[in-house]
């Protein structure tokens, strides 16, 4: 995903008008970031995202009508090419895991300092993750209490489709043709898969994905 003129186009979604307006004012002062839309709930957010086509969405978790996790699921189901950074007061490991399962690219608390927020936005826009230190410990503890459960998938539906094509031994161009997307988009998805699975090449990605049960080995 590229940004025009190295400016990150951003949509802010939060049901608290006072906080949202203050956040927009803060973001407008940050170099390289442009707020192109805002919404007060999930349904409105989907319409704004489809209209403005931002690179990044700052998404609240607890909202009326459609909460942040369901909004995120809808964003992924509609194949909207946007990265999503959750910004919430919740330190619940369950909320974080639900957001990750739904396809979140990062999870920050609302007490994050402005400079840390700016760095997180740049990281997520560049395809990297962002996680508030306060929630890291609880999440690791939550995962440790689930030894007999498969870890939640960090991959979006589209990334899983690309991964399945990789298992089948397809080239980047073949994957692009199969999924009706560009070569560059395929490369971006593959990079995200490598980052999320913490691997450095296709063979490692396929092997780890099979080990985690994300995909099945191609039948001979």
List keywords for this structure.
13% strand; Rossmann fold; 10 helices; six-stranded parallel sheet; 220 residues; alpha/beta; single chain; 2 domains; Arc Repressor Mutant, subunit A
Question: How do you describe this structure in short?
Answer:
With 220 residues, the protein is of the alpha/beta class. 51% of the residues lie in helices and 13% in strands. It has helices at 17-28, 42-52, 68-77, 93-102, 114-125, 133-144, 157-167, 172-179, 183-197, 202-212; strands at 8-13, 33-39, 56-59, 83-88, 106-109, 130-131.
Explain what the structure shows.
The protein has 220 residues and is of the alpha/beta class. 51% of the residues lie in helices and 13% in strands. The protein has helices at residues 17-28, 42-52, 68-77, 93-102, 114-125, 133-144, 157-167, 172-179, 183-197, 202-212, and strands spanning 8-13, 33-39, 56-59, 83-88, 106-109, 130-131. Strands 2-1-3-4-5-6 form a 6-stranded parallel sheet, sandwiched between helices. The protein starts with 7 loop residues before the first strand and ends in an 8-residue tail after the last helix. The relative contact order is 0.10.
């Amino acid at each position: 995903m590229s940004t025009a003129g190295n400016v990150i186009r951003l949509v802010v979604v939060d049901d608290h008008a006072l906080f949202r307006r203050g956040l927009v004012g803060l973001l407008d002062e940050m170099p390289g970031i442009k707020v192109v839309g805002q919404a007060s709930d999930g349904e409105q957010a989907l319409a704004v995202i489809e209209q403005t086509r931002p690179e990044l969405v700052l998404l609240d978790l607890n909202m009326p009508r459609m909460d942040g996790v369901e909004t995120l699921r809808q964003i992924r189901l509609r194949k909207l090419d946007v990265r999503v950074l959750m910004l919430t007061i919740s330190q619940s490991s369950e909320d974080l895991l639900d957001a990750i399962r739904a396809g979140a690219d990062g999870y920050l608390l609302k007490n994050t300092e402005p400079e840390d927020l700016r760095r997180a936005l740049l990281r997520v826009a560049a395809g990297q993750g962002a996680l508030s230190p306060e929630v890291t410990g609880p999440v690791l503890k939550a995962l440790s209490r689930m030894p007999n459960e498969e870890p939640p998938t960090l991959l979006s539906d589209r990334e899983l489709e690309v991964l399945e094509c990789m298992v089948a031994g397809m080239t980047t161009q073949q994957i692009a043709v199969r999924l009706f997307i560009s070569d560059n988009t395929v490369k971006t998805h593959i990079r995200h898969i490598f980052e999320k699975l913490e691997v450095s090449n296709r063979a490692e990605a396929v092997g780890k994905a099979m080990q985690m049960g994300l995909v099945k080995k191609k039948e001979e």
